[in-house]
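JOB MANIFEST
job_type = single_chain_structure
chain_count = 1
residues = 168
[input]
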Amino acid sequence: MKQYLEVGKLINTHGIKGEMKLELWCNSIDYIKQFKTLYMDEYGNDSLTLLSARPQKNHAIVKFAEITSIDEAENYKNKVLFGNRDDAEIDEDANYIQDLIGCSVIDVNTDEEYGRVADVLNYGASDILDVESEGKHKYIPVIPDIVKEISTEAEIIRILPMKGLFDD
């Protein structure tokens, strides 16, 4: 499991005092507010001290101790930010998308493997697993009727396929 997870992308400056607009790659601004420090790469290098985060439409306006002017903020545009998974909490029944990618998708009754999760998509109603097998993609909604167990530690997702789900 990756220790440092992508939380969003700094997409623009905001004002003249170094605030920046952050495109959120997480469920809510409350998740971002748990962090005191964010990082510039997936290894925890080049840290930024988060002073504040407030919502603005579907983004966040963030302020870092190290960025005090619009000129400094310009240097951070289009940079992806990472958070240390130990610095934030998620709900007990929630999972990080990055932990789902690579998991084997297995039939809960027959142990047949349908493939591995290549991506997790969301178009509103629920998350959708993009399951790849031999270059073909199948899409599985993450709903209780289908997804019966997720074990990111074992890298296994057990499903009860609905009729027609895997018909070509």
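[summary]
The CA atoms of residues 38 and 48 lie 5 Å apart.
The chain has a mean pLDDT of 90.
exit_status = 0
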